[in-house]
Amino acid sequence: MEGTVKWFSQEKGYGFITSDHSGEDHYFNIRSIRGAELPSNGDKVLFESKTGNQGLRAVDVKITLKAIKSRHDKQDDRINCPSCHKKIVPRIVTYYGKPEKSLCPYCGATVKTFSNCFIATSVYGDPHCEAVIELRKFRDTKLKNRAMGRAFIKTYYSVSPPIADWLQSKPTISSFIKKILDWLVTIVRTN
Where is the CSD domain (predicted)? Predict the structure, then answer.
């Protein structure tokens, strides 16, 4: 399908595409984008339409034509550091060639970590929802501190991406897994 990027946040990593054919909005996130360049509002794109847990999703998004911006429309792509609140372009820290986190160049605070909860993100449809953040915090504060937890994390990262992709087309199974994760989040919050 062809469409136009209605809105995309580079900071949050998701946005919406309006289909040229039907006029319907499709949610998409950074994992759905093909190529190294991120889209901007108004860009023309090609994409595949899928039905997800919470509505229409755009996958395999490819930019076909960048929106023309006048010299007066300069966009400030910098973000505010969560610690020192200065406008920054975060610096990426990699580990064995994979992005691990981004840091503020002024104060050195962690701006964002890049390890994902693939299945939870797929089921909830948003990597920034409260439940996914809670599960990520549990991983970082509890599981990473124990050998068994680190082994679980390693296994999870090797098997979960294809499962997460498969779940996107299985709304019934996804809703069942969401109930399990909701229960798990309540347990994690009490510990």
Answer: 1-63
